[in-house]
Amino acid sequence: MRDIDLFAGAPPQTKSDTSHESELAALLGITANKIRLLVRDGVLRRVAPARYSRDDAVLAYVTYLRASLAVSGGLVAADAKLKAEKIRVAAAQAEKLETANKIARGETVRADFVVREWRGILGDVRAALLAVPSRCGAQLSHLTAHDIAALDAEIRIALEGLADGK
């Protein structure tokens, strides 16, 4: 009985022109299962069970990849934007973790703790400065009530100027 060529008009394939499914998969950098899926989808065609024309298969696969890339070309920009967003989120998470580690090591403190501490210190400084006129009046008996009132007024003016950022 004579061999029948399934692909009429195609030159007969020799053993050296064909590759086994696993060899073709290794050549293309994909799995043998992907080769079978490409056959099912009509991208590749077998010349014998589990055998493929190496040149035809490579050409068909490259054509398939080019077509896939052309179709997904609109998605490339969206993919780049998504990738950039993921990088930004990852950087923010890394910064948050680094800040938490610095706090845990005592290398940095939270701003609300600093503000609360400085409010207490500045309140103590204000109270001490406002007490100066009465302490001077008790220690310096030659000062008149008018002198003590003038000291008090000057200290209050200075404190108000500091509070206004002057």
In short:
The protein is mainly alpha-helical.
Helix content: 55-70%
Strand line-up across the major sheet: 1-3-2
Which class of the largest domain in CATH terms?
Mainly Alpha
What is the gyration radius calculated from CA atoms? 42 Å
Question: How many runs of DSSP E, i.e. beta strands?
Answer: 3
Overall tally of structural domains: 3
SSE order in H/E notation? EHHEEHHHHH
**Percent in strands:** 5-15%
CATH topology of the largest domain: Multidrug-efflux Transporter Regulator, Chain: A, Domain 2
Provide the CATH architecture of the largest domain.
Orthogonal Bundle
CA-CA gap between termini:
109 Å
| Broad structural category | mainly alpha
Average predicted confidence as pLDDT:
85
The major pleated sheet works out as:
3 strands, antiparallel
Query: Count of DSSP helices?
Result: 7
Shape: rod-shaped
List segments where confidence is low: pLDDT < 50 over at least 5 consecutive residues: 1-10
Task: Please characterize this protein's 3D structure.
The chain has 166 residues and is mainly α. A hairpin with a 2-residue loop joins strand 2 and strand 3. The N terminus is likely disordered. The chain has seven helices and three strands. It folds into three domains: 57 residues, Multidrug-efflux Transporter Regulator, Chain: A, Domain 2, CATH 1.10.1660; 35 residues; 53 residues. Helix content is 69%, strand content 5%. Helix 1 packs across helix 2 and helix 6 runs antiparallel to helix 7. The protein is rod-shaped and about 120 Å long. It has a three-stranded antiparallel β-sheet.
